[in-house]
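ESCALATION

Customer reports they have been waiting on this structure for their group meeting. Please prioritize. Original submission:
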Amino acid sequence: MATNPSTNIGDPRADDARGAMWKLHWLLRVGVFMEFVGHGACGVGTKAGWLPYFHVFAIPDATAWKLMPVVGSMDIALGVLALLAPRRALLLYMGIWGCFTASLRPAAGEAGWEFLERAYNFGVPLSLLFLHGFGRDLRDWFARIGTEPSPSPDRARGLLWMLRLTVALMLVGHGGFGAFMGKENLLGLYRAAGLGALGLPLEGIRAGIGFFEIGLGISALFAVRPAFFGFVCAWKIASEALYIVAGSKMACWEFIERGGGYVAPLAVLCLLAFLRGPTRAPVVPEKTVPLPA
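Update from on-call: job pushed to the front of the queue and completed.
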């Protein structure tokens, strides 16, 4: 008697599913790396805008200037470790830290839109953790995770909603800057982009773009077409690249720090591809074929 190999071997549907998960893993991994290295570089270079966050803990400016490079160096080390050897415990800590730093903005007196806009700071590392599942024991939490996760359809659907919510919050938050906050630095960015040549008041353009982004964010919760999330990624890259165009201090690192915002919509694309149709080939029992006499 002889057996035939399983028909799942080489099945293009199974291969596509594995490929989508491999891409998803690396997108989230690179996004986490960009977030923490970019944020850390701003700390190492020292940034006056960070001073109010130290004031939340009654830390004087003289001490804050000295602590910034320490905090920044830790962030850079975490980002590099997440890229080279990610672990569940590390991703959990990074998600909590990202949420904590985002929450410092409203704690320092800034608008709540600032917290929403930085949803990717904690949404991306927590999504990578959820993709691989929580550790079963302490050893599992500190073991290096693989590059080819195989989540169940239920976990993939849950992850899809996590990432949709991350994309929605970051767009709504950023839209709130222009629609409701009237954030001043946006005028400088739009002026550097040449929007003033349109002959329209920049304040009106700022508000219009803000409401447009809020609409995009709400749509992200329901959209199913890949082109939509491809557009969101391109929009986010273009809008954040204005910092480089304007030549602001630490502009390149500011752009890199927002890496989670670029990969989150692309991660949604991977999950939609994974969940669309029969992403996994059904397991077919091996058949026994009699050998010819």
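Sent to customer with the following note: Residues 13-280 form one domain.
Escalation resolved.
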